[in-house]
Amino acid sequence: MTKKKKDSSKPGKTQIPGSLKGEPEINTETRLRLYRTMYECRVLEQRAYDLFMQNLVKGTSHLALGQEAIASGFGTAMRPDDYTFCTYRGHNHTYVRGVSMVSILGELMGRECGLLRGKGGSMHLTSVKHGAMGSYAIIGAHLPVAAGAAWSAQYRRTKQVSVCFFGDGTTNIGAFHEALNFAVIWKLPVIFVCENNLYMEYTAIKDVTAVENPAADRASAYGLEAIVIDGNDVDVVYEAANTAFSKAREGGGPTLIEAKTYRHGGHSRADPGKYRPDEELQAWLNKDPIPMYRERLIGLGIEETQLKKVESETDEAIDVATEQARNSPSPSTDIAFIDVWADGGASWRN
Amino acid sequence: MAQLTYREAVSAAIAQEMRRDENVVFLGEDVAAAGGVFKTTAGLLEEFGPERVKDTPISEQAIIGAAMGASMTGLRPIAEIMFSDFFAVCWDLVANQIAKTRYMTDGQCSFPLVLRSANGGGSRFGAQHSQSVENWAMAIPGLKVVAPSNPADVKGLLAASIRDPDPVMFFEQKSLYSVKGEVPDGEHIEPLGVASIVRAGTDVTVAALAAMVPRALKAAEILQDQHGISCEVVDVRCLVPLDTQTILGSVVRTSRFVTVEENPRLCGWGAELASIVAEELFWDLDGPIVRITTPHIPLPSADELEDAVMPSPERIVQNIKKLVD
């Protein structure tokens, strides 16, 4: 008898793993922080998109509009000294560690004020002092690297946790499987977070993957619990993150979480995302994490004026950041020739 | 001075640095309990314990990735890739990630790690376990590249590589593992980026690396004894940083330049050296620059076939004789 296959392209009901039940209520201050972080991410990505349209951002860029709940939930749950590793779709994950809007926009625009002074670009946002250990632009590469940072934390007994965000497409590359096995056998304090937005670039993940849940259905191969969460519900993400952080800090080893979500736009700048059915897109737009959470907060008795204050402050901040980035000069060409080596130089001969 | 084999010098260097710095850790396939498939790391697990000397699964991406993540967060890992041919299965981590991340992040992070590997031919392992891939590494900005020819240099250069703040690719020539040599007692460290004149001469400068150094020395002996040609043999030791001054200084004295390379012909390390010598010392040369390399073919396995393709003392003699005559 064959089991009827569930259509995973529709936003499902929240599946909260058993371990999350009975968690204490999230307090108002945290909820406001979650809302603010998501709203800031949204506005930042929107602005990045607008700047592309004005040709002020060159190259490519991969926006995470619609996926803000995952970065925000984890960013809020983690310790300032935890490590995060993300992908080229990593503006949100970098921002939630405390990196400024102007340095992110400046990097996208290739300006002196950019986070990497224009040496990395949109796909490589990194801020080591904030624990944002890099945005990795080759699929799968950063999973073993995140495991390595977790190994270091374990060896140094710091109780730091390494969090690694990646997309559904990553689950079909070898490094994903190598890293999971490795993290489990060494019991490393690392959390692997698969942001399943249903599409690997332009192709539906279900069309190219042997299992329905590309990450969670592989968990059992590594002795891990299969965890699928609603990645558009920031409370759910926050609670799942807390559970995984506690486990990792207590020496319980890695967690693999698959968070179902949806990107509102295409894969990258060049992609209008036309391959996605209208009804599917509409259904997910109706499940936009930000208005959904706003409604919940008002239902919980939080004054709308408080939310409006968050929104107006952010709207103002993004305009200020945009102006600062626009007015920042191009980096001096001298910096193209430095910092290959730890001594600051680029010399390969005497 | 103690007599150590090339393989014993590997573990001696790692042990020296692990005693000195508790942030030095070591991982790889079969390296701990088994002491390495080439027995290069025997005794390390016993001395330093399973937290610092770690066996891994056959997962080269995980090994290199773990070394990268650990190095950017305070450790100084040494990772072993059993055969250098296997870098092909984890080259993304080496070439795209480790080599470039410091530059791309505007210098925010450093990667003080060593990737050790058994490199090169002469052991009849065939085309996928015998390659000389040091020129792959040389082609990537951001990697230092070391290939020692004798036990003393294995110890000194490996110790320096472990202390170096940048990623170092350390290529051990596997057919040299059983070679014995004198190694200085006590702490021994040799700076990276310094070539060594291992035989002084006046007629021709011969630059060689790793297993090609003893072959060049053997050829130099024959050329002197049988043909009256005096060769200056330079052990290049490090491809990055490259000690061009020692080589150029030698060529100024001899006016002739020959490279002996184990790597296949195209884009071998000697091509870069040849171009430097041609650009900078063209008017000092008394003849063409000659590159002696393995032909541009995969390495065959059988004794006679492998011997026929790798540069031999006889082939070196013939080429140099032709150049000088």
Largest interface between protein chains, with number of residues from each side: A-B, 54 and 49 residues
- N-to-C SSE string of chain B, H for helix and E for strand: EHEHEHEHEHEHEEEEHEEHEHEHH
**Structure annotation, total helices of chain B:** 11
Structure classification of chain B: alpha/beta
Query: Would you state the CATH class of the largest domain in chain B?
Result: Alpha Beta
Q: What strand order characterises the main sheet of chain A?
A: 2-1-3-4-8-7
Radius of gyration of chain B: 19 Å
User: Oligomeric state of the chains?
Assistant: heterodimer
What is the CATH topology descriptor of the largest domain in chain B? Rossmann fold
Q: What's the structural domain tally of chain B?
A: 2
- Structural class given helices, strands, pairing of chain A? alpha/beta
Number of strands of chain B: 14
- CATH architecture classification of the largest domain in chain B: 3-Layer(aba) Sandwich
Low-confidence stretches of chain A: 1-5, 14-22
Main beta sheet of chain B:
7 strands, mixed
Question: CATH topology of chain A, which one?
Answer: Rossmann fold
Distance between the termini of chain A: 72 Å
Helix content of chain B: 25-40%
Number of strands of chain A: 8
Report the portion of residues of chain B in β strands: 15-25%
Report on the architecture of this protein.
- The complex is a heterodimer of chains A (350) and B (325).
- Chain A contains eleven helices and eight strands.
- Chain A is an alpha/beta fold.
- Chain A has a single domain, classed as Thiamin diphosphate (ThDP)-binding fold, Pyr/PP domains (Rossmann fold), CATH 3.40.50.970.
- In chain A, the strands form two sheets. Chain A has a six-stranded parallel beta sheet, sandwiched between helices.
- Chain A starts with 27 loop residues before the first helix and ends in a 23-residue tail after the last helix.
- Chain B has 325 residues and is of the alpha/beta class.
- Chain B has two domains: 182 residues, Rossmann fold (3-Layer(aba) Sandwich), CATH 3.40.50.970; 129 residues, 3-Layer(aba) Sandwich (Rossmann fold).
- Helix content of chain B is 38%, strand content 21%.
- Chain B is built from eleven helices and 14 strands.
- In chain B, the strands form three sheets. In chain B, strands 3-2-4-5-7-6-12 form a seven-stranded mixed beta sheet, with helices on both faces. Chain B has a five-stranded mixed beta sheet with strand order 9-11-10-13-14, sandwiched between helices. A two-stranded antiparallel ribbon of chain B has the order 1-8.
- The radius of gyration of chain B is 19 Å and the shape is globular.
- Chain B starts with a strand and ends with a helix.
- The mean pLDDT of chain B is 98.
- Chains A and B meet through β2, α5 and α6 of A and α3 and α4 of B.
